[in-house]
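Lecture notes, unit on protein representations.

Consider one protein chain, 219 amino acids long.
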Amino acid sequence: MKKYIPILKKTKLFAGVSEDEIVSMLSCLDARLREYKKGEYVFHQGECLGHITVLVSGELHIQRDDYWGNRAIVNRITVGEMFGEAYIAPESGAMLNDVVAVEDSSVIFFDVKRIITVCSSACRFHSMVVQNLFFAISEKNRKLIQKLGHISKRSTREKLISYLSEEAERQNSSTFTIPFNRQQLADFLSVDRSAMSNELCKMRDEGLLEFKKDRFKLL
């Protein structure tokens, strides 16, 4: 697990904490490393969580399938990101979504009770982790609001324009790469893949954008 300390140091959860301090906290927080193959589930809908988790290698999708098998991608988790924090309150209830490895992945689990309960020595870095957790939850809420802004648009074109415009602004370039393939983008925006592909072609023919696979250029 120690090989992942440099990654943990760069996470929002351990911002401002040194690598030596993180090492000393691993046992305090009951840190456990688990490995997942591509396609394996980290969590299933309906599970109750007692851990906050950090992805240290690979990539995960938080997703949900309805009764007929239609999939919606709620969020994408990349290396260094935390997940599960939405369920740390005693009355949060069970998981509403599945968490799936979209490539071979490694995840570190931290006991949530040990994180939010500062140890008797009241070490400075433990208090800092509690503060970081609060800030990270606030950041996640902001991103959720951004996504709601995309999917609340009425038409497929409006959803695409909203999402692609935000990506161009976030990457500070009119030419950029998105982290989804076509099916994943359709699932993320909650639209039909064929309808979305047709709309992209129309927008290209109208001179609004150019694209090749996951690379886009807004004109």
